[in-house]
Sequence to fold (1130 residues):
Amino acid sequence: MTSFSARRVRADIPQLNRLIYDRPITYLDSASTSLQPNAVIDAMSRYYQLRHANVHRAVYQTASEATAAYEGARESVAHFINAPGGAGEIVFTKNATESFNLLAKSWGAKNLASGDVVLVSEMEHHANIVPWFQLRETTGIEVRFIPVTDDYRLDLSRSEELMRGVKLLSVAGMSNVLGTINPIGELAALAHRHGALIAVDGAQSVAHSATDVVALDIDFLIFTGHKMLGPTGIGVFWTREDILHTMPPFLGGGGMIADVRTDGYTPANGPTRFEAGTPPIAEAVGLNAAVHYLEGLGMTNVTRHEHALAADALSRFDEEFQGRVRIIGPADTTDRGGVISLDVEGVHPHDVAQVLDQFGVCVRPGHHCAKPLMRRFGLAATVRASYGPYSLTKDTDVLLEALGHAVKMFG
Amino acid sequence: MTSFSARRVRADIPQLNRLIYDRPITYLDSASTSLQPNAVIDAMSRYYQLRHANVHRAVYQTASEATAAYEGARESVAHFINAPGGAGEIVFTKNATESFNLLAKSWGAKNLASGDVVLVSEMEHHANIVPWFQLRETTGIEVRFIPVTDDYRLDLSRSEELMRGVKLLSVAGMSNVLGTINPIGELAALAHRHGALIAVDGAQSVAHSATDVVALDIDFLIFTGHKMLGPTGIGVFWTREDILHTMPPFLGGGGMIADVRTDGYTPANGPTRFEAGTPPIAEAVGLNAAVHYLEGLGMTNVTRHEHALAADALSRFDEEFQGRVRIIGPADTTDRGGVISLDVEGVHPHDVAQVLDQFGVCVRPGHHCAKPLMRRFGLAATVRASYGPYSLTKDTDVLLEALGHAVKMFG
Amino acid sequence: MTNLDDLYREIILDHYRSPRNRGELEAPPAVRVEGFNPLCGDEIVVYLDVEEGVLANIKMTGTGCSISQSSASLMSAAVKGKPLDQVRATIATFKELMTVHESTLAHDGEPARVDLRALGELAALQGVVKFPVRIKCATLAWNTLVQGLDEAVA
Amino acid sequence: MTNLDDLYREIILDHYRSPRNRGELEAPPAVRVEGFNPLCGDEIVVYLDVEEGVLANIKMTGTGCSISQSSASLMSAAVKGKPLDQVRATIATFKELMTVHESTLAHDGEPARVDLRALGELAALQGVVKFPVRIKCATLAWNTLVQGLDEAVA
Ligand SMILES: Cc1ncc(COP(=O)(O)O)c(C=O)c1O
Ligand SMILES: Cc1ncc(COP(=O)(O)O)c(C=O)c1O
Fold:
């Protein structure tokens, strides 16, 4: 067990030294994107300064270094999620959203036909909804939604009915709006019992808890660099080698081919089949550094730390605002992460966030790319505060102080 | 006219200080990817250190700064290519290859039907071939190739015949193998005379010469950040607003929607319709810095400098190797850029490059993602040396010295 | 907090708390148009009655922040019962207020080209341009109105 | 240049200049398989005659660098006329040579687990593993052979 100190993490993150309107920044938007430690920023700078070159296609020194760095990132990521087949199962995309498009438009287009059901949930991010709608337009699949209960959990009471005709169950490990942590192991068993596969949107969960694709017994995992202390411009798509192997190409171009003639082409094998064009090389270097950094912290430490922050915050809203601030998400702290959506009575989320900004508090107002969930609860938007490994109780203090002002101003 | 000095450029590029096997690096692989000046590397580091946040969806200070930085990059890029409709015509993708997939699978899928012809050339990069083959699979379009003459130019002698049934002409501004600069203005007139549109693969040309989409009268322009002193992980797609406006969505997810319901979605308008998920924010910051840097150098200076280097090199190969080293590309230096492909008699390109590596010379052996062109000339691969604004005659000197060794070794 | 007071003027908070012209019109005959701000989830539905070149009636429903709601309310009060050319002129002036400011923000000067008096109460929204991300909130109702007018006269 | 001499041993240059078993076999009855190295454009076509558990004949055409060509030539000499189980054993040993080295490169030690004597002339290719990007050149022919054997016995 590594010893964990959020203060030590803070010291590694340059943006936390910033002042906003002469106040220290209070960063509570990690569910949207995380801040980066120097280890990540510097790894990318050093890459550009010393060894930037295109990968795969050259024999000179810096090109082999760049290739080794890029492929090394694949290894690290494979290890981080315990991919059984190792680096050969890791595809780098530009973000989680592209990974979902790859899932829908390569695996989905090949394996799903009219009438087949893709089961998602009402709490999914648009990234796990819109690609399925697009696939529906071309193939006639059905996109079905697992309802969300009034206490913000997946309603699996009618799971047998829900699973009828389902070929793929695709759900978030953790909701980016509610903080709800879904029972992935259970859902995997459910899917497999019905002969379906399961895909997990790990965009939130992978950054905040240990993820073991073998232990979870899942078939696809998707996540994104910029939410796990890594850079923008890189996402991950994981599936087992035996599935990856059968997936047809997605984007076409250089790097993903074995041969191109004037009359056709032959796709390459392995992850590169899905990596058309010059890949995100510096971004892979940054992601590798982020993974190492997180492993250094210990993911169980990260989970415990953020859980404690969330539990503390949840207990304080009621006390402080006597019901004027409603939590949109589970009130109890079991199976719940550090994402807290708020509805402030009579004050629009945009206005709340605007007032909070004046206190240096960074929170996100809006639908959080989860409009079906918003509609489910009759909301247009929420104010969302979310924690990272560098967050402190002090951040909650400032949040509560600023919220108090917002309530007063529009009261 | 700005005064231009390649030595001053070199001083800005940290990788040029590297030693390879105790020799200074001789970087001659700019056609594959360029090196980055400190201005670009530092802009990205500073972004992560000070203002990284997700764009578009928040009101707090760093989020507005990040949004301004991202949208500011769009403005710079629009200005750089003289986009008539400004920033609203610039779509950021992950690389030129994704941009071509967007062209084929959004504009192409909507506007092309069975029997319609997309006219490319035998000298195209796979990025401008494979997406059309993929579209052919789903729509039955015809993909036709403009032949390349024995002196490495587009053979337009039968242009009327070639243009029959063509809806889109899609060609490279400059070949990444031959160095040939294609007559884009002329081709645009040809396409328009036949009621076709024209797309230009500017991956090579935009980095080495001034590009004005209005003066060229083209309809689509595609290029990539990492070949123009910018970072990996970002590409550009430009088209006129009236065309962009009619293009259906491509990748689906957050950010590209106006609304999502459980029964369907409405796409957003403008470039964001094609930017699903968290975009390459830091990469846009880096590209912005690269564009400013290039504008500071003056693109006409860059063109002139690289042209002089190519002319000097071309004149020296024959003298030095008495025909044992053949140039695969135009021998004359009109309409020709700083990309020089070589065929060394009796020595495979991989072996040439391996020997060159020992001299710190970075060149690329291979098919350069242009297999149809390789077949056209009965080659499996070439050795390619290519110049950038930071190249010097000294680089050519080392190249020739190292080539001499390779020839001797396998002689 | 000076900054904030600039944005949230009393008039704005008043129109937010008591919005004018809330409600629906039967459509048809009225024109009904929807507007979204995809980035923040704000929605608006505008109903228009155009009769003989005059915007005879306007009603609105929807949800949004104080800026988008008060802007809609202020807009409805400013255009209701006005001849269409005058409505269009008001729209143009308001849009100029939003963009002029945005581009001259750095200079922090007064919006020379915009006649603030012509805007009446609408001028209260000028503080918005100091908060560029909120401009979209302020213009949502206006863009929806433009769309509605185009449909009404089509 | 020590490095380079390690890679380009005399045996390798010899097999490159005078490749063994170049040519084609009529297919069928021979099995014909193609191999590509998509990254560098190398191509190889391997023809196999398998008769009663013996790799009776092997021929090859194709283009490639000195490493891929000499590796193919050395391979053909090593496996021609050999019983299939012996062929598979040679393949396994060769592949181990390529991977053992690759993963222990940092330690710069000898490939403890590989019996170099069993490889004969093939051992000349051990220098390749110091040049990781060239390993794919050396293994192209071998991977193609494996594919051909699978087809021949299918
Ligand atoms: C002419 C040409 N087109 C397209 C590309 C593809 O660019 P990218 O790899 O950034 O997608 C390249 C470079 O690889 C190129 O040289
Ligand atoms: C649950 C969830 N899925 C998917 C995404 C999409 O990630 P990206 O924007 O990196 O594609 C996000 C974040 O935006 C998310 O929170």
Remarks:
- Chain B has two domains: 6-30+298-409, 42-296.
- The mean pLDDT of chain B is 96.
- Chain B touches chain D through 17 residues (CB under 8 Å).
- The radius of gyration of chain B is 22 Å.
